[in-house]
Amino acid sequence: MNTKTRSNFNIMRRLSGLVKPLTLYMMLAVSLGILGFLCAIFITVLGGSALLNSMGLASGTGITVLSMKTAFLAAGVCAVLRGFLRYGEQACNHYIAFKLLALIRDKVFQALRRLCPAKLEGRDKGDLISVITSDIELLEVFYAHTISPVLIAFFTSLIMVLFIGSYHPLLGLIAAAAYAVIGIAVPLLVSKATKNTGMALRSQAGALSAYMLDSLRGLREIMQYNQGNERLLGLDERTEALSGQESRQKHHAGINMAGTNTLILLFDLLMLAAAALLYRRQAVGFDGVLIPFIAMMSSFGPVSALAGLGSTLQNTFAAGSRVLDILDETPAAPDIVGQKEIAFTKAAVKNVTFSYGQESSIPVLSDISLDIPQGRVIGISGPSGCGKSTLLKLLMRFWPLQKGRLEISDTDINRINTGNLRNMQSFVTQETHLFHDSILNNIRIAKPDASREEVATACRKASLHSFIMGLPKGYDTPVGELGETLSGGERQRIGLARAFLHDAPFILLDEPTSNLDSLNEAVILKSLHEERSGKTVVLVSHRTSTMKIADEVYRVSRQELGNSLKSGRVSG
After folding, report:
1. What is the pTM of this model?
2. Would you say 137 and 101 are in contact if contact means Cβ atoms under 8 Å apart?
3. How many whole angstroms separate alpha carbon 557 and alpha carbon 572?
4. Can you tell me the distance from the alpha carbon of 74 to that of 72, in angstroms, rounded to the nearest whole number?
5. pLDDT digits (tens, 9 = 90+) for 489-516
């Protein structure tokens, strides 16, 4: 999966576009935010008005027209409203944020399903987990603390520029310049200075997650070969690298905060100096000095929040870019829809040549042809690495062909709806993945609406029912994460039970008895033989005993030609 280079503006535009379904909530959040900040600002402004009235310096214009009692009462109302408005704004923003995070997780999961397995093959699972957990979670900062704060800062600043400018245009210009520098220039400069730190931080976090997951999965081997210290050293190195990157980012954030506060102070002093100069020239009254100065000092809240985003948003943009990489990735074998539904009658492999990824010079299969008649059990054998398992995956359309043609019922596999194709096929691999759930639900994944009796029947065919009934909770027994509580043979039989339950007409079996003893193998082969009526089976195995149920056995030969490996034509 390639990481694309995106500008922060492009990332912001893409992420903002997801807010459209929640536009009304966003408008409400912005409105409440503007009113909330205005209430906070005018608490001090009304206090200044009351002070002028008490000193007899009020000009009787603008806000000083209010009496001291009215000003204090209005300030109290603003103080109370500020709390409710702030709560309402945050509630709306976080509702939007978490609603959108759920939407994004759903989109990412759908994207991963489309990309699997071809585009996810070889991808670090720990890094992928980091993207779909912590990276998506970081987008909460953008949705709850960026979109509406930007709009709130713009409109609040505009209102305050007009208010301060009502005393004198020069004062309004100073306020506009202050808000522009703090709310626009500072974030842009900081963002440019810390441009690459966010992506580096997220990449290192993903690498640490991948290393940790790899260590946990290989914990037995680490203990067996006494590699604990080496793995701990590797973990320490990655942790220190991540910590160093975080320290650099925090350093930038600290400088940003100090610089922002210094600029705010300088602009406050500039406002006071300009107002005093205008007062000396009798361009404004004393209220034209005090009120604009107080208003200026208390109105930096919205824009100072934006100033702090310059460094913290780098993490968010980096996370957003990594999430968008997944959403934008093109599947190697896109789902097919809109074609006429077909029923399975037979299958055929015609002059198929295939290689994985960038290994185009090393074909796994070369000019393979094979007819698979309906109702037959076709066995395929051959040395490891000659492409037997790959052929089954191509029949499942997990990867696109580079050359040749695959047919189901005389129809090109690329013209069959993906859902239709999956319904016609059952695929049992060498390793069966089990979810952290009960045995019943792990088997029922092949047919979600299956009754317990249907599941039990499938398990009897897979020589699994007696074993399950001997467990403490029977079919409701949890299998543990990744099926660690079960043996390899038991997991493989669950995979076979899924295939029996799915009851598809075209069954693809990849070493289905490799982890089974002779007794269980015989029971399963007997079930396959008895249940073959109306079924077509392609059976890949190294075992001669397994191949005894095949009507025809084909061997894939591997010929070494120069530096490449080629599979010869399948022959009977």
Report:
1. 0.67
2. yes
3. 12
4. 5
5. 888 888 889 999 998 999 999 988 777 7
